[in-house]
Amino acid sequence: MSRALAVLTAAGSGTRLGARGPKALVELGGVPLLVHAARGLAEAGVAGIVITAPRDHLGAFASSFPGGRLSLEGPRAGDGAVEVPIEVVEGSPASRQASVARGLAALPALGDRCGLALEERSVVLVHDAARCLTPPAAIARVIDAVAAGHEAVIPAIAVTDTLKRVGERVDEGVRPVVATPDRSTLVSVQTPQGFAWGALRRAHESAAARADSESTAATDDAGLVEAAGGRVVVVEGDPLALKVTTPVDLALAELLLSEKARLNNFIR
């Protein structure tokens, strides 16, 4: 059942990945990261997706979804194909926060196309194309928690590394340790993050001035809700929702995808 709309952020440059173009268009198993991420959202029950893309690549992004739709075949589709509307909009070069805001501005019209008018408690997801292998089951957990009444929901996994807080550099390549946080109270946050439409819209509106620069912009949308006084809760994430940022990440994602048949119970 279609029960959510989503903004899929995909305006990253791909510099750290060593890509010649946008990271979201880098192929994984012959398919762009962007399409993998959109499929995961669709399989989890998302009715329509707004994608934020770099200005110079809007056409390439749109061509990844012929007819402005994603055709889905599989468990959700039943005996026939499901067509999920896709809207590609120009992201912002200023910050991720600014790009998401542009995506949110396009959501009401997309909702009308999908027959899913946005209301105060409507479920809206914000996802990163770089987390292209996020399992639909993990996405569904986020949707379920928002639908149950939580205004902001983030998927997360336990921190397994020992973390250190460090101070300013004291010598070339040397920084002092100033604290060792208790990792039992820490989690590593993933996407998609889920929100009640009203709470997310107001959080972005109240923090709009921060979006003009990466130095002041929020690194995730839950942080905006938290800053506005909202309550953010955590649900179980998934190790497969890794963020593809470097060539090593891409190689790992390729390995996971090639083993999809064996890992099917985890990926779906």
From TrEMBL:
One of its GO terms (molecular function) is 2-C-methyl-D-erythritol 4-phosphate cytidylyltransferase activity. It comes from the Bacteria. Keywords: Isoprene biosynthesis, Nucleotidyltransferase, Transferase. Its EC number is 2.7.7.60. Transmembrane segments: none annotated. SUPFAM superfamilies: Nucleotide-diphospho-sugar transferases. InterPro entries: IspD, IspD/TarI, IspD/TarI_cytidylyltransf_bact, ISPD_synthase_CS, Nucleotide-diphossugar_trans. It catalyses: 2-C-methyl-D-erythritol 4-phosphate + CTP + H(+) = 4-CDP-2-C-methyl-D-erythritol + diphosphate. Pathway: Isoprenoid biosynthesis; isopentenyl diphosphate biosynthesis via DXP pathway; isopentenyl diphosphate from 1-deoxy-D-xylulose 5-phosphate: step 2/6. The record marks R183, K243 as: Positions MEP for the nucleophilic attack. It is an enzyme of class 2 (transferase). The keyword Nucleotidyltransferase applies. The record marks R16, K23 as: Transition state stabilizer. PROSITE patterns: ISPD. Belongs to the IspD/TarI cytidylyltransferase family. IspD subfamily. This is 2-C-methyl-D-erythritol 4-phosphate cytidylyltransferase. It comes from Schaalia hyovaginalis.
